[in-house]
Write a structure and sequence with these properties.
By secondary structure, the protein is of the alpha/beta class. The protein contains 17 helices and 14 strands. The strands form two sheets. The protein has a seven-stranded mixed sheet with strand order 5-4-3-6-2-1-7. Strands 8-9-10-12-11-13-14 form a seven-stranded mixed sheet, sandwiched between helices.
Length: about 400
């Protein structure tokens, strides 16, 4: 009966390749391996993030007699002194334990000489899958015969490498309104929350302040979730201050929309954001900390914001931002931007260096920052020519 209903079952479950990617994300989040397929190759892949010695020992037994390779992004490879144009595969240290492997994957300074080889398409796709799962982009990988997967119970999830690259676009298209309700806010602000869901876990929301006229350009703020700043008032960033100022300004000016996006840590996720903070405490700025972990400086995709605005019926916006990447990203998503509205918040001793790096290295419009700097403070701002290298 199940075989006879297979076509109808596919309609219920969704397109098989993309279901496989969703399940692969869930497996990586749980710290379990997946099988990535590309052409005739099948590669068994285990995330380094969360790896312990027991899991490592089990994985090495499964791989034997072959030895897995440690897969790193080009950015992480360059951070440890490897001249890489793309992802690389490294032989494991002679005495490999979970702690030493993690150090190669995430520490600022790592001793040793590495002899890399280029990573193949399957593991390159797996790095992208790890980012979607908010895991470090660092993996253990070994080629296996497809028939070897039959020994696993429960079965190993198999993911086609080609489907991973197409998944983000599908995730944007899948976004739909899940629920909405009025939520009165402090300061006598009238707001309505519209919550969106898609095929990737997590939820984003549009906070519609007052009753903006959608036939005209609407003042819109794209705000990436920041647990530390928005909820707990962290002084390391300006996120919470920006959120509160945006709400106040929208209420005072007749209304607008805040898109609260599930993109913690510029798209790295909360755990990786804390890892980046640790590296900042060792002396790196916010840009170099993300790069040292193997990520791009900013992993966010604003296609989801464009989709949210489309579903609300908002096609033209006055974008409340200091970040040129948000302007470019929203325009690429098909939203007309008629104006930029600055959002300047107070500078303090804990976020000054962070804001300086955003201004000098990511082009954020933060002219008020320079007015607060002494000559001594100005030394924390990297030279723009150096930052571009």
């Amino acid at each position: 009966m199940l075989n006879a209903d297979r076509g109808r079952g596919s309609s219920l479950l969704g397109e098989p390749n993309f279901v496989a990617v969703e399940r692969g994300i869930a497996e990586f989040r749980a710290g379990r391996p997946v099988a990535m397929t590309a052409g005739a190759d099948t590669v068994l892949i285990l995330p380094v993030d969360g790896l312990n010695d027991t899991q490592l020992s089990s994985f090495l037994r499964v791989c034997a007699p072959a030895l897995p390779k440690l897969i790193l992004t080009a950015r992480r490879a360059r951070a440890i002194g490897i001249d890489a144009a793309g992802p690389v595969a490294l032989a494991l240290p002679a005495v490999a334990d979970a702690k030493s492997i993690y150090a190669i994957a995430a520490s600022q300074r790592v001793a040793g000489e590495f002899k890399p080889s280029p990573a193949d398409p399957a593991v390159t796709a797996a790095l992208a899958l790890a980012k979607l799962a908010f895991r470090l982009p660092a993996l253990l990988a070994v080629k296996i015969k497809k028939t070897a997967l039959s020994v696993f119970d429960p079965p190993i999830v198999s993911v086609p490498a080609g489907a991973v690259g197409e998944f983000r676009d599908l995730a944007v298209e899948s976004l739909k309104v899940a629920s909405e309700a009025p939520v009165p806010l402090h300061g006598d602000i009238n707001a309505r929350f519209v919550v969106f869901r898609g095929i990737i876990g997590g939820e984003s929301a549009a906070i519609i302040v007052n009753d903006p006229d959608l036939s005209k350009p609407v003042t819109v703020r794209l705000h990436s979730a920041c647990l530390t700043g928005d909820v707990f008032g962290s002084r390391r960033c300006d996120c919470g201050d920006q959120l509160r100022l945006a709400l106040k300004q929208l209420a005072a000016s007749g209304g607008g929309i805040i898109l609260y996006l599930d993109q913690e840590g510029r798209g790295l996720g909360l755990a990786n954001k804390m890892r980046a903070y640790e590296l900042q405490d060792e002396g790196l700025d916010t840009v170099d900390a993300n790069i040292t972990l193997g990520f791009d400086d900013d992993e966010r995709d604003y296609g989801v914001a464009g989709r949210m605005l489309d579903l609300i019926g908002c096609a033209r916006v006055r974008l409340m931002t200091n970040n040129p990447a948000k302007i470019d990203g929203l325009a690429e998503a098909g939203i007309e931007i008629t104006d930029r509205v600055p959002l300047l918040t107070p500078v303090n001793g804990d976020n000054r260096r962070y804001l300086a790096a955003k201004a000098a290295r990511a082009g954020h419009s933060l002219d008020h920052l320079f007015e607060t700097l002494s000559v001594k403070d100005a030394s924390i701002i990297p030279d723009k020519a150096d930052a571009a290298s």
